[in-house]
Design goal:
The complex is a heterodimer. Chain A has helices at about 5-40, 55-65, 75-95, 125-145, 150-180, 185-190, 205, 210-220, 235, 245-270, 280-285, 290-305, 315-345, and strands at about 100-105, 115, 195, 200. Chain A is mainly α. Chain A has one domain (about 75-100, about 120-345). In chain A, the strands form 2 sheets. A two-stranded antiparallel ribbon of chain A has the order 1-2. In chain A, strands 3-4 form a two-stranded antiparallel ribbon. In chain A, α1 (about 5-40) packs across α10, α3 (about 75-95) packs parallel to α10 (about 245-270) and α8 packs antiparallel against α13. Chain B has a domain at about 1-80: Four Helix Bundle (Hemerythrin (Met), subunit A) (Up-down Bundle). In chain B, about 75% of the residues lie in helices and about 0% in strands. Classes of the chains: A mainly alpha, B mainly alpha. The interface of A and B includes residues 126, 133, 152 and 159 of A.
Chain lengths: ~350, ~180
Amino acid sequence: MDQATLRFVIQLGIIGLTFFMLINASAALVLAERKIMGFMQQRYGPYLVGPHGILQPLADIVKLLFKEELRPKGADKWLFTLAPIISVTAAFAAFAPVPWGAETTFGGLLDTPVKLGVADVNVAVMVVFAITSMGVYGIVLAGWSSNSKYSLLGGLRSSAQMISYELAYATALASVIMLAGSLSLREVVDAQDGFWFGFIPRWYVFLQPIGFLIYAIAGVAETNRAPFDFPEAEQELVAGYNTEYSSVRFALFPQAEYINMTTMAAVATDLYLGGWHGIPILDRWGLGWLWFLAKVGFILFAYIWIRWTVPRYRYDQLMQFGWKWLFPAAVLNLIATAAFILYFNA
Amino acid sequence: MPDTVLFYVFSAVAVGASLLVIGQRNPMYSIMLLIASFGALSALYIQLDAPFVAMAQIIVYAGAIMVLFLFVVMLLNAPREDAAQWDRTHPLRHPGVTRFGAMLAVLLTVQLVWALLRVTDASAAVGERGDVAELTSVRTVGRVLFTDYMFAFEATSVLILVAMVGAVLLAAREEQR
């Protein structure tokens, strides 16, 4: 096989692997969520399917596939079908510009190194942000097209919440972009290579602790996770925007949510935690992606940890917090970062 | 060649969706079609080597402004416009208003044709007229925005702020009643 063909096949392989990992991330996260929740509540969680219940997601999927697909009589036929598709498509697409490993030649297999990741875009941060903001249409349309009061309220809440937290989220991102001087996620990661004083990794989380906190909070709100899961809010809205959904169409919503969580965690790792950099030996062996996976895994664990620890706020508290605390804090952080850069670079 | 095909596909989507936005009677469908139109437009920006503008288009228009539109339509629960129920005495159906609208449409067409006729080197690809990637990079856009177009930029910001304060004032007055 000549180099060009080999390169093409490897690139296709990388794309396929990313897709495969994302699909399985949602299954693994369902299991992890139920297991961790179980342990936090002093019980085992799912235990019957497979050893220690590790095949539970498989059983869940089979069950969901064989459920009857229902559509309420007054529902809007087109938008009702389109909504879950938009959700899950946006979730998958948002991961495309996220790099997950350093350049590698696969032990000299290729003359020029390939980049681990689906697409290397020079405005990657904006692409992720743009596609994530498209995902909200899935939830809003699901709420509107179901022709149900609970769904409509869920959809309305989702759109209001998204607008409120997107601002703080984008402002936190802007601070990191200014530090790195690039909109490319790969360049942001490479800017964090190395150590301060020989032992503190040059991660932006140490320069941007407030920014990281804002990003994490806004990220939880953007993915509609507890304590910000107002579009669902079981106690008030039955199941919120997805009340009227069943079978596969229903399954697509949680899948989109788990993939969005994974994307959010991967972007946080790239922007604040140095991506695949941090352990020199792994970097040298070209195994940095293992370290990347470990960091993403930890952030996802923290997500689940928060969900089963913190109770849901009231809706007006969510709005107040977003506009009166989070957004001003993000703007102040941005100004402080700009001043810092001006002072040290001038 | 694939570039040309893609250009025509995205242009067709943009124009078709925009026409359907006006043709739709259901406001919800209008919004979705407008988003599709914005998406096709941003694809055209990418073809022009301006990824930053394309992404800004998606984030600002398709992402933020259209969510707001959707929010308002859902909140008001706007009904389907029904042709049979159209009121002939509606202020917008007044002959004076329709004639004024027709005049504006003619004026717009004339402007468009005039502008298109002024483009002399339409055959040359935009990429050949200079380093477009450099011209539309974030750095250049930022620099130009805060130096050459400083006044226009700040004036627009103040204008938006005024509109925002006005909206808050109106909402507050409603509440007092």
